[in-house]
């Protein structure tokens, strides 16, 4: 089927200005933050209301067209990668903050509102929205919901799933449904958050607002090597302290950050640790004393402290720019997002170092040390023959290391298209079949963001269990096994 | 009878200890035929496969403390008692996680974790409750204000489905977004999707110090000044100053872990108790006491009051949820109904448990429930019947409206197409 008829229909539903079919303009939307996966979407629509999204999804059902939702396109796993035979539903025009209700500590926002805009709307009232992915200036809350985003402060405050009180969604059938924390019944709200757009599209988000802490203190500690830094992290957590954030960068990541933003981290540091403490002043003062002592005992040769927002921003500048910064020291790189139990960090980092040397591929380590979420940046020169392949091998072996140590293949970036082939390494066929039961309940026709998260498509009529023969979708050329 | 014998034989062939049920095993008044005592996930899977083959209806039970919660099952052949799934499998102190079988009681788990200076930050309303029952009913106590409910602390889960499939989701790390979060789906699912056999939780260090600050609020005569329904000839009382006190506490920077209300008699005064935790708990308690002192005489204690983290009754229990700013409206609405209600719960989160006497009467009970739903529904209030004998609930829906019910039914159909797992126990008759 050509897409002309659906495009005309969407024009009737949304207004012709809200439908893009021009091939040049369509290419604007061919990838998200993971640029090595690119597909030009069949049609792009720019709805302004939940009802418009519902009408588009209903029409997609009539035509049997797959659809993909996209916010700002900052995702790092290809979760919003479009379909050439389908519709990309872009929520960037839906960016109103609909209500702020401080008495009930909540706000209701449209999905295209950026993460930081929520905090900015209530900061002057002494409140904020806690989950803060590094891309928070541009990433949208709808995307945060799809990916269950975290950020540096989720060690203490939790993830998107812990801060969303209700959602309005368009189901894959095109129904508008409210999923609420307060409603009796299954926790569909919890199941939906982090489902990467495969269970429907978010059209309204009710978020929890938090009281800004009385005090925030940020420490930067410089160590001669990453082992010393790791020791300090273990001692802090072992000492019963749960900081708001505890982040680490190795020498190569520091070098990249210096090259990009001149963050002026202590010279000669083989690792820097950023520890942020927040809460009641007296509590923070006590914890600050403890963390300082632990860092010094672990070998920190320089400590810096920030008490005001400007100083704090200076400390964070290097860390927050690290991903972009490696572009200064390497023509190309892969960002990984594996997670390991915190106690396995020293062993896993040593193994990554070995992998790096064995394959002649540099790896810069930036990670959320408190919760074991690694972001190894696997650097390579895409002009050098074979380097990309070697980087892929190293990147995959890092994920294997995470799985071997009881961790996860993704801590916050999502599975998307990028890691779906790793899902069977982490989960059994039975585990994946069980997840498909949820998918089939929401999306029996498999139209909502198909091809993401799961490696092997399953028809919802199929009985789970041992598969025999070739899958019908594989046979028809619509899918492939990895 | 012949068929029954085959079923019993097939169950015993699993190697799992099976006994005939006795009247004490009844689930919300419905007696099962057999009780099975599996010791592993594999044994639960074997039981579920036999149950699938013979179309046996299955209800899982832990400590039985909340077995009378939820609707009575439409049918019940096999009770799977998880008491022998009683091993704490892994406590990784450095990683702040614990992996445990779900028949372990919350008390036993707490003792194990205390050895490593850690805790699962969930309060247990009833002694003897197990991990599995706590997850299945989404039970939580005062500290839900700070730490949330089981779904917020659960990071991995192993379940056995209706056909005997064993499935895992999540894992052993706190930060993990790979695949669907089945742990959340199973939290509060009342045994209707599968049997939860293992769970992994994130832990917290036991705080260095704790203080409870309590203020007694006397009853004051109260009249609505508008022309609304609330103006009646009946003398109404209400704990004075509650509304502004709770708003002040919720907005304070003392980071309380819990703000609890105890209102033993809807015609009288109430107590509000705040918990602060941490190395600086003493200093923070003083700040909280100052704030509370504007509303009455506030005292600081290093132990909780006797009523802390316990339900206000046993046989007839309701759960009321409402946006926090309307909590006082909910309390007034309860008082206005004129029944001897006892209310306790997280006033700052506005998740309250209401107890009524067992002899309240079917009609009075139905009017109380439907009346409150009508009063509070427009404000976002939800009232569910946690526990009530069947003779009280003929005239009403225990759960009340759920906007996503069609989707919930579809989830149930996928997980349990034969309706054999706790059928009829849950919302919408699921």
Automatic annotation (TrEMBL), chain B:
Pfam families, sorted: FAD_binding_4
**In this entry, which stretches build a coiled coil?**
none
Q: Which residues form the FAD-binding PCMH-type domain?
A: 27-206
Give the record's keywords alphabetically: FAD, Flavoprotein
Superkingdom, according to UniProt?
Bacteria
What organism does this protein naturally occur in? Streptosporangium lutulentum
InterPro entries from the UniProt entry: FAD-bd_PCMH (IPR016166), FAD-bd_PCMH-like_sf (IPR036318), FAD-bd_PCMH_sub2 (IPR016169), FAD-linked_Oxase-like_C (IPR016164), Oxid_FAD_bind_N (IPR006094)
Entries under SUPFAM superfamilies matching the protein: FAD-binding/transporter-associated domain-like, FAD-linked oxidases, C-terminal domain
The answer to whether UniProt assigns keyword Flavoprotein to this entry is yes
> Could you tell me what this protein is called?
Glycolate oxidase FAD binding subunit
